[in-house]
């Protein structure tokens, strides 16, 4: 049977983690100074006038390189729990991890052949 009192810690954590950012935004909105001037409305507040247009186009290759890095970096984090409990879980989990690594290698080879790892 589903018992709600078993989840009291979860609900307390959820409420506290929701209230703290809301309070932080509310308090900073009250305490922040409201002085607006021409320096505050400029593009940069460093005191140097901006040169050129602020809209620059970046090549998509940089975003693809970063995306491939993040994907493979996050996916390797999933290997850590398998490595820490390898002796307890047995051979079936080793086969699953091996298939997971093979899928990662296939994705890496695909990205490499498509040129997503080329920086220039």
Automatic annotation (TrEMBL):
**GO molecular function (one):** quinone binding
Tell me the function of this protein: NDH shuttles electrons from NAD(P)H:plastoquinone, via FMN and iron-sulfur (Fe-S) centers, to quinones in the photosynthetic chain and possibly in a chloroplast respiratory chain. The immediate electron acceptor for the enzyme in this species is believed to be plastoquinone. Couples the redox reaction to proton translocation, and thus conserves the redox energy in a proton gradient.
Q: Which UniProt keywords apply?
A: Chloroplast, Membrane, NAD, NADP, Plastid, Plastoquinone, Quinone, Thylakoid, Translocase, Transmembrane, Transmembrane helix, Transport
**Which positions carry the signal peptide feature in this UniProt record?**
none
Protein name per its UniProtKB record: NAD(P)H-quinone oxidoreductase subunit 3, chloroplastic
Classify the source by domain of life.
Eukaryota
In its UniProt entry, the species of origin is given as Strobilanthes cusia
**Membrane-topology annotation of the record:** Multi-pass membrane protein
Output the Gene Ontology cellular-component terms: chloroplast thylakoid membrane; mitochondrial membrane; NADH dehydrogenase complex
Record localization: Mitochondrion membrane; Plastid, Chloroplast thylakoid membrane
Q: Which Gene3D superfamilies match?
A: NADH:ubiquinone/plastoquinone oxidoreductase, chain 3
Q: What class of enzyme is it?
A: translocase
One Gene Ontology term from the biological process aspect of the record = photosynthesis, light reaction
Its assembly, as annotated, is: NDH is composed of at least 16 different subunits, 5 of which are encoded in the nucleus.
């Amino acid at each position: 049977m589903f018992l709600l009192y078993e989840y009291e810690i979860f609900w307390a954590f959820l409420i506290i983690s929701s209230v703290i950012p809301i309070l932080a935004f509310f308090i900073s909105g009250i305490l922040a100074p409201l002085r607006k001037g021409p320096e505050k409305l400029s593009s940069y507040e460093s005191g140097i006038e901006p040169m050129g247009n602020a809209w620059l186009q970046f090549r998509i290759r940089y975003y693809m390189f970063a995306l491939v890095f993040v994907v493979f970096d996050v996916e390797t984090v999933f290997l850590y729990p398998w490595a820490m409990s390898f002796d307890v879980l047995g051979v079936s989990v080793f086969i699953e991890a091996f298939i997971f690594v093979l899928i990662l290698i296939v994705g890496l080879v695909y990205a490499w052949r498509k040129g997503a790892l080329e920086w220039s």
